[in-house]
Design a protein that fits this description.
The complex is a heterodimer of chains A (328) and B (225). Chain A has two domains: 175 residues, no CATH class; 97 residues, Alpha-Beta Plaits (2-Layer Sandwich). Chain A is 68% helix and 7% strand. Chain A contains ten helices and four strands. Chain A has a four-stranded antiparallel sheet with strand order 2-3-1-4. Chain B has a single domain, classed as P-loop containing nucleotide triphosphate hydrolases (Rossmann fold, 3-Layer(aba) Sandwich). In chain B, the strands form two sheets. Chain B has a six-stranded mixed sheet, with helices on both faces. A four-stranded antiparallel sheet of chain B has the order 2-1-4-5, with helices on one face. In chain B, strand 4 and strand 5 form a beta hairpin. The longest helix of chain B has 16 residues. The C terminus of chain B is likely disordered. Classes of the chains: A alpha+beta (328), B alpha/beta (225). At the A-B interface, helix 1, helix 2 and helix 8 of A face helix 1, helix 2 and helix 3 of B.
Amino acid sequence: MSLLFKGRQTSYERKRSSVLARFYFFIVMIIRQGVQSLGEMWRTPLASIMTICVLGLSLTLPATLYLVVKNVQQVRSGFQEASEISLFVKQGLSEQQTQSFVKRLALYPEIEQVSFIDKSQALEEFKALSGFGNALDYLDMNPLPDVVLVRPTARNQSPQAAQALLEKLVAEREVEEGKIDIQWLERLNALLSLLRESVITIAILLLTSVTLIIGNTIRLSIMDKKAEIQVMKLVGATNSFIHTPFLWTGIWYGVIGGFVALLCLTSMMWWLESAVQEVAGVYQAQFALIGLNLTEFGLLLAMAISLGFLGSFLSVNRYIREIEPDKV
Amino acid sequence: MIKFQEVSKTFPGGHKALQKISFELRKGELAFLTGHSGAGKSTLLKLISVMERPSVGKVFINGVDLNTISNKHIPFVRRDIGIIFQNHRLLDRYTVFDNVALPMIIEGAHRGDVTKRVHAALDKVGLLDKVKCYPHTLSGGEQQRVGIARAIVTSPPLLLADEPTGNLDPELSMEILRLFEEFNSHGTSVLIATHDLGLIARMKYRSLTLSHGRLLQDPLKEDMI
């Protein structure tokens, strides 16, 4: 394209007169610059390595917290549906009344299994487990109530459904009191959501600082190449031509930083694996740490790349405009 | 080719670098621009390559008023002008080949075309054997010739040279001037800023003389007065 000399076309320009061909050459040029900037990073790795590590490590922290949340959720889902409802039967009912109550309970569609523990059986159990032993023999009468243990069907095991069932059962006239052990679950839930919120906050803080750090690195690199940029402007380079290599540098920082983060996460998991197994062994539970899946890693990488791009974009827009070839 | 119409340039701070300059460089002409240091030679060249804008007046290239060119389009103006600098301004990190190829790469030329034209340009300045060298391994004269090869690689219709022989001995200077003559004989318009009067005296070309920001119409006569 020539503004001053209409019809001045070099032989290589004639080949790409159509819009499609121009677009193709534009893309080819951008890719070429991308490869070149990667090559340049390879030749002078020291300048880039620190920034890449900062990016990688800064991504590692929120990603680790995310994994913690994910793993705890996995543990929790194992416990969530084990809710068992204990019903304490009113004192003074005849054995027959109690038996018919148990039979009636078994007919509930929400209930999968009913087991009855009568008070003498409960006392024996208590004697064996509590360690009070013979002291209990001095009691005139058995203070314990009959207990009915109810296990809801799978569909009714979520905290809300179990709670509803509990209320229904307590309304039965034979029932003194009902208990369901879901409070700890609610606490865990609250704790988890707190953790999740803090992951987001920490991530935002860290990622902002990473963007600024990348911007600063690119700024230094722009200052370093000031003379070069002036010459390029003098021989007719457009701003976008000068911008592209720096933007690519930011993108490459993101790509490599993303892999650094993955490496950190993987080695951390490998390090923790045996400790976690030990803990799981103590609790006699089967538990394996889960890492990032492919989608999550893709997300991490995309985030790293956009941070790199954003950081360099800010710098490039700000500083390259200022460099003008005044001094000849 | 280049036309100045009552052009003045005043820098912030009040320094009047150029005052009411009017002249025309015809198509295919070779001319010298002379004057003492600080006479405004560099400023005049900067106005042509749009590194500076005139305070008053108009500069035309090929009939196009440069005041009408927006900042966004300045790069495209510079692609039509080959500029040669006194300190040659080569990129030390790149080889001679890459330095000369730069203007073509910027325009997005094909690899094959680039190689062909860069070799042709280097051949013209007699440095084809230095393709793979880095600029700092070359002598001053060779570096200057690489700069010239970079300026002509896209065969621009207009060449500007700012003190191209500044640091060279007379023999090398002559050699470089011969190169400019050769490009000129192919129809390129050339404007050379220099204070090397001995050099100008040996060649029969028009010279524009600047003195304190003014153009002397008939240098010999005015000097005598």
